[in-house]
Amino acid sequence: MQLPGFCQKGCFFVLLCLLTVFFSSQLMGAESKEAPDPVKKATAKNPSYLPIRLIGGVPEVLPIPGDARPYAESRFAEEIDRALAFMIFKYRDPGRWFWLVLLDYMQRQYDLPERYKLKYNESAKVIAEDQEMRDLLLRIADPEYLIPLEQIEEAPKDMYFLARCVYCCEYPIDDDFVGDMVTCLEKEEEVILSPFALSALMLRQNQCIANTHNQMILRSTVGVRYRNIIQERGVFDSFFAEALAMLPLLGYSDMIDENTLSEAVSCQNEDGGWPALFKEGTARASAPAPTIYMLWAMLQDALPDVEEVKLVPVRPEPASKQTKMRP
Questions:
Q1: I need a surface site. Which of 61, 159, 290, 302 has the fewest CB within 10 A?
Q2: Span 238-273, pLDDT tens digits
C-alpha cells in the first residue's frame, strides 16, 4: 500500500534525525577517547603541572600532589616540603638568583621534581637583579656556558676566587692560586666563608689540582671556622645554617653534634623559611640564605647514601673558543 505523501516525507525526516544523532554520538565518543588526560600529564618528571592554589604565598596543599619525594622517609620530610615551597613560591625579594642556582643543584643531586630547576624559576626580573653574578657563575647550572678568562679576572676578590674554581677545568689553576685563597682567608677574620667553602668543594669534586698542601689547608681552615660558629656562637649565629650544610660536604660531619640539626630545624617559620638570625620565641622574617642552607643540610641528612653529583656539571664536549654569553 502506498503511503500518503506527507507520511513519506515525515518518515524520511525522522530517519534523518535518528541517523544524525547516532553519528554525532559516535563522533563525540571517538573524540573523548582521543582527548589527552591532563591528570596523567602532571607527573613529577614533567614541568606541565596542574595549577597550584597559593594561600599567603605558599601552596595550600603540601606536599604538592604528584611531586616525587625521595626524602619521604626523612624525619624532616614535612620541613623539607615547606622549605622547598618557600624558595620558589613565597620568597620574591631581589637578590635570590644564586640561591635558585643552589636549589637547581639540589634538584640534580637529590632527584627532586623538575619544578626546582633554575630554568623554571629564572625570570627576566631575577636575571636583571643579579646580572653580574649570573654572568660569572651561570656555569654552575649550565654546562655549555662559558665566559672569557679576562671577564673573570675583573671580578671582585671573593667572586674572583669562586669563579676561577667554577671554571678550573676550562682555565687551569695551580697550587699557588689556592695559596692565595688561604692567605686571603687567614688575613680576614670576618670574611664571608661561603665562596671559599664552595670553592673547596668544587676543587675536590673536579680534581682540578692534586690534593696539595694548600688545598688541604684551605679545606681545614674553612672547616675550623664553621666549627667555631657552631660550638662557640651556637644556633643564633647568622651563619649557623651555612655551617650545618657545608661541614659534611667538606668531610667534617663529626664536627656537628647529634642534636644540633634538630635544634636548628625547630626554628623554621610558618612560611617554610628560616630567619637570618635564629632566636627562640621571637618571630623574625624568613630569608633565602639560611633557608637554602637548612634545606641542603636536611637533604643530606635524609639521603646520605646518594651518589654525589658535581656542583659544576661536566661539559658535554671540550670547551670551545666561542662563548655562550648571557641572553
A1: 61
A2: 899 999 999 999 999 999 998 999 999 999 999 999
